[in-house]
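tool_call predict_complex ligand=3DJ
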Amino acid sequence: MTDFTWTRAQFHLPMGMIYLDGNSLGPLPKAAPARIEAMLRHEWGEQLITGWNASGWMAQPRAIGDRIARLIGAEPGHVVMGDTLSIKVYQALAAALKLRPDRRVVLSDSGNFPSDLYMAQGLVKLLGQDYRLRVVKPTEVAEAIDENVAVTLLTEVDYRTGRRHDMAALTALAHEKGALTVWDLAHSAGALPVDVSGADADFAVGCTYKYLNGGPGAPAFIYVAPRHADLAEPALAGWLGHAKPFDFDRDYTPGAGIERMRVGTPPVVQMTLLETALDIFDRVDMAEVRKQSVRLCEQFIGLVEESCPQLRLFSPRDPAQRGSQVSFRAENGYAIMQALIAEGVIGDFRAPDVMRFGFCPLYIRETDVEEAVGILARILRGALWDRPEFLRRKAVT
Ligand SMILES: Cc1ncc(COP(=O)(O)O)c(C=O)c1O
Ligand SMILES: Nc1c(O)cccc1C(=O)C[C@H](N)C(=O)O
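tool_result ok
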């Protein structure tokens, strides 16, 4: 049974702040600073180059991959860490396209994160030969999967609306039509139970700085289904994905299975940070996280609709169709969010008018939700957002 009082106590949460933005960047695990200091002093400081073996730095991308595998329902040995999510999207998509050489269409949806679409655009342009990206509305993906589609590139939970695709159903449909699937789990991993193996996904990728709390710049992960692992051709043929990197061959031979999805030197310090967050997940049951996340989201929606009539729900009302975030639309949403942040409630804003709130049961309680909505309602009632410093739009994260 997950002890959410214990999990909350494992994070540093600034005094007076209610943090509803863990869907963008998770908070700092309290164990991280000491762990990093020890790593720097004892591993890097004392071991220097020998740390690659002595401290297992070289094996870390696979070892951490196995810990992520448990959280996304992947078979052990089929997830590896490294690079940024955008890079992993590119790698997965390129490998999937190569596995369907007679087809030319990448299918995605307009709710996908722009970087995923940009990566696909760049790749199809590079490939030429009539390769193209087709983008449809999120609700129209199922009917758009036809015999021309080589690969579907979908983010399970939409970063703006929080809408959740049915991974198992869409994967089954794609397979029925002969297409492969690449799932982006950026807004799912660590937020809800994911079962890539059960859903029969072909490739999956995700980041670790959001719900997995690995810190800014934390490495991404990639999953390749066992049936493709030794067939996938790496488009980014880096030396650490080579079968024998330390033979320094002139020609590239892909490593066995998921090893070939490695590219270059892994971010060791960031991975060590991520390990401190995963230590917390070792004591967490994702089914219970989901149950509590639904409870918090439902509470938030109910209270906002009761006390903030100016806001319109943008996320699906049915919890089964949502991830762990809730979005509301509002005229002056940007200024309202700035006023809210000034009062210590941290959410974020996505153009043109979307206010996003993430609910992570690992450190958010029902009392936090109640307090956050109380502050939001007070801001709206008193039009406290209507001030030049809140209205002036700056580049936002
Ligand atoms: C769904 C999704 N895909 C891709 C990215 C890009 O990730 P990165 O900046 O790590 O490349 C993000 C977030 O930035 C995201 O939310
Ligand atoms: N990755 C980010 C970053 O480096 C800076 C600021 C924000 C981010 C994000 O993750 C944005 C996020 N993907 C989103 O859902 O909007």
